[in-house]
Specification:
The structure holds 2 protein chains of 2 kinds. Chain A is mainly beta. Chain A has no helices and 11 strands. In chain B, the strands form 3 sheets. In chain B, strands 2, 5, 6, 10, 11 and 12 form a 6-stranded mixed β-sheet that branches. A 4-stranded antiparallel β-sheet of chain B has the order 3-9-8-7, with no helix packed on it. Classes of the chains: A mainly beta, B mainly beta. The interface between A and B is medium-sized, with 27 and 24 residues.
């Protein structure tokens, strides 16, 4: 199993450009999440999904959109990139089981720079 | 509301000496708690988790953590540090909401430096 994969690994954008980050998981997990990581701030939840076709806002959703058209994929879009969106983005997935404490499995991250 | 505080942003130890990374949490419910580790330029890996079973939780690579409800703490320890333990460590608490969304709250992280 590949686990959670993210593409691309690195990207540089100019202000105003758009892009989509792709997250894929092969563990048949119901739940998926997008985080951003900034120095000294831990990880902050951008958006999440509790199943195919459903999405919801997290702690810092502004400037981002997401889609979950297939259970195994979770896309994060930036419509008009801003320098404040320079960050490392992580995708995660988990079972929909309280018994498993919703343990999350993380991808390797995407380092995005907006100039 | 739930929250988590990592009491040290940076900890430095010598190889072979004990490691203590401190974490306090706040939760209205009986929480699930996790420690994740992130090596440089890598993703996050689960070290261990507490889910209301045994209060002393053993994880990978010799790490363990003790859940102390009276102190609202979940400190991470290791008897003897290894150079490969140098990384950033995150204490994490699950959000108990009616939607059972599995959302997590991350602490700010503690950078562990291991000196030879």
């Amino acid at each position: 199993n590949a686990g959670v994969t993210q593409t691309p690994k690195f990207r540089v954008l100019k202000t105003g450009q758009s892009m989509t980050l792709l997250c894929a998981q092969d563990m048949n997990h119901e739940y998926m999440y997008w985080y951003r990581q900034d120095p000294g701030m831990g990880l902050r939840l951008i958006h999440y999904s509790v199943g195919e076709g459903t999405t919801a806002k997290g702690e810092v959703p502004d400037g981002y959109n997401v889609s979950r058209l297939k259970k195994q994929n979770f896309l994060l879009g930036l419509e008009s990139a801003a320098p404040s969106q320079t960050s490392v983005y992580f995708c995660a997935s988990s079972h929909d089981s309280a018994r498993l404490a919703y343990e999350q499995y993380f991808g390797p991250g995407t380092r995005l720079t907006v100039t | 509301a739930q929250s988590v505080t990592q009491l040290d942003s940076h900890v430095s130890v010598s190889e072979g000496t004990p490691v203590l990374l401190r974490c306090n949490y706040s939760s209205s419910y009986s929480p699930s708690l996790f420690w994740y580790v992130q090596h440089p330029n890598k993703g996050l890996q689960l070290l261990l988790k507490y889910t209301s079973a045994a209060t002393l939780v053993k994880g990978i690579n010799g790490f363990e953590a003790e859940f102390k409800k009276s102190e609202t703490s979940f400190h991470l320890t290791k008897p003897s540090a290894h150079m490969s333990d140098a990384a950033e460590y995150f204490c994490v608490v699950s959000i108990s909401d009616s939607g059972n969304t599995g959302k997590l709250i991350f602490g700010q992280g503690t950078t562990l430096q291991v000196k030879p």
